[in-house]
Every structure is written in C-alpha cells, then in structure tokens.
Amino acid sequence: MALDRDETSERVLEIAAGLIAEGGAANLKARTLSQKAGIAVGSIYNLFGDLDQLHGQVNMRLLDRLGDAGARTAATLNRSGVSDVRTRLLAFARTYLEFVQANATGWAALLAFSPSRMPEPAQATYDQRLDTLFELIAAELRLDKSLDMDDSRIRLAARVLWSSVHGIVINGAGRRQRSRQAEGVGDQIDMLVTTFLKGIDRRPA
Amino acid sequence: MALDRDETSERVLEIAAGLIAEGGAANLKARTLSQKAGIAVGSIYNLFGDLDQLHGQVNMRLLDRLGDAGARTAATLNRSGVSDVRTRLLAFARTYLEFVQANATGWAALLAFSPSRMPEPAQATYDQRLDTLFELIAAELRLDKSLDMDDSRIRLAARVLWSSVHGIVINGAGRRQRSRQAEGVGDQIDMLVTTFLKGIDRRPA
Prior knowledge:
2 copies of one chain form a homodimer. The first copy, chain A, contains 9 helices and no strands. By secondary structure, chain A is mainly alpha-helical. In chain A, helix 1 (5-23) packs across helix 4 (51-79), helix 1 packs across helix 6 and helix 5 (85-102) packs across helix 8.
C-alpha cells in the first residue's frame, strides 16, 4: 500500500458511503470496494473487520453530518436573533427533512442498519452520536424558561419531538413522487410542534 | 394445476408472507415460492405479475390485519365503557406497538417497500388501506366533542399522531435487545399523546 493506514481507511470510507448512497447496503460489496480503492479485499477486512462495521462507520459520519447541519441551523437562528422556541424547532425539523431528502438512500440504509451487529464499544459510540442529536433539541427546549419540565422531562420531550418528526418525515417520504405527497409533511410537522409545545405545562409567571 | 386460480393465489400469498416474515423482501424468491407451492415459476408471474406486486399484496394483508387489531381494540374499549380519549389513544398506540413487535420483519419489509413500484390501481387500493387506518384514529378524536377542530384538522391530527407513534416505535425497535431499549418507548408515547391532546384548543363550554 502506497498510502498509510489512515489515508486508506478514509478512502475506503468515502467509497463505501458512495456505494451505499447509490444502491443501499446491498450495494456495499468487498470486491467493488477493493477494485475502486485499488487495494486487496483482505486489506478492507483488516481495516474494518467486516462490511457491517464499515457500514456502521459510514452511518456515524452521516450522523455527524446531520449534527453539523443542526449546529448550522442553530447558528443561523442565533445570528438572526430568533428566540421563539416554536420557530426554532420548526427550523430544525426543516433541516432534518432536507437532510433526509438529500441523503435518501444512505439514510434509509442507516435506519435499516442494526447497531447490535457492531461490537459493544462501537455501539456505545453510535449511541453517543444519537444522544448528541437529541441534545440539540433538548437545548432548544431549555431556551424557553416558562416550560415547567425538569431536565429528565426535557430530555424525554426532545426524544418525543425527534421521533415524531422522524415518523412524519419517513411516512411522507414513502409517498414521495406520488400524488398525495404534498398532502402535508410540512402541515403535519407544524401541527405537531405547535400543539405539543402548547400542551406543555407552564410555570406560573 | 389441481387447485383453481383463487386457491392457488391464496396459497402463494401465504407462502410469500411466510418467506418475508422469515427473511425480509430479499427472501422472496420465485424459485422458492414455486417449490413450496408446487407450481411452475411461470404460474406465479401469471398470477401476480411480478414479485414486487406479490409483495404489495402481502403488505395489504398485513395492513388489513393491523386494521383488524385496531377494530378489536376499539370494541374492547367500547365494551369496557372507556370514553376518555387519552386512554383510548394510548390503547391504540399499544396495539400498534405490539403488532410491530409481533411482525417485526414483515413490517420492516412493508416500510421499505415503495408502493410506486405497483401499477396505479393497486397504489390506490394501497392508499385506501392506509386511509382506513388513519380513519380509526380520527374516529377516536371525534369522540371528544370539546376539541375545537374541524374535520380536516381532525384528519390531519390523526396523521400526526399516527406518524409520531410510528416514529417512536421504530426508533425504539432499533434499540431492541439493547441496554437502553427500556428507556422509554412507553414513556415517549404517553408524553406524546398526553401533551398533544392538552395542546389542542377546546371549544368554550
């Protein structure tokens, strides 16, 4: 190998991400990787253990990119001086929707991937990535001091909002390019966020 | 063929459902079907067009079974005289959770299936099945006369609740058999339903 271990890993990861984005997990094949990266099949296994673990690594990068997109949204909102939590959460939901649309195949492969196929330490890292994402939403809820929730409720609410928007987005995605798709992913997200926020108890002023 | 067309279709559908339940859509193979059903591969294509359409038919039956489970839940609630909408919706969410757990592989294959692979008339029938399911939830919301929503808002709210519970259930399912799974699918559903219902405007008494 002309490249060092890190550079080769990096290249294999990028090729793997491209293959999954093109054709899902079924398109991630050792022989194709080996040909495209110009290294032996055995080297891929040496570097990543097996294809499941390689897919897990690709997924973690996708989660990082989603986290980056969320951080950019927060920064934009801060710069624009938007403090209304409903408006902010709707911007996060839109970020998620756009991310899923832009990475449809890779995201579907991530959802179908079971982290339990990875060794324990990798699972923990995977969970950490998810927690970081939930924490972005929790941080938004903490901005509204009138919400009467302790921190464990706030974290639970962040998961509820996250999973609910996720459910709305993927149910909508299933109807992509079909007549009824317009029928309301945006409207559903708006109703969810607005109604849920209104339903949270407030502290007495 | 010793059996008539309907009986043969029925048998192929049952075998197909079993294959998908065992190993997902990738496990649905014409040759296996032909061997198990004792008919020629060509007959399967004659009956169903192609494997995508066969999978679509299997999915419609799964949706029907979910609808039946929902109807049974409504009947049980009615017999028990439960009129509180929150309690009723939580019972529906539990029905959904149990259904997804009992049919994990088949349900995952249904979610990964794109109805747009079927011809237009079959797509319409597929959408009808989904509408029937949403309608079960809308009917529950209509029971609470204090909710200040016209019928189009009620139908939108039914979709929001459906997709949100769906998102919570599948995010939870991804962590099945892992340490943090207990961490709250039930709690999340409870918070979602309770908070969402509280957030809906009420008519003045």
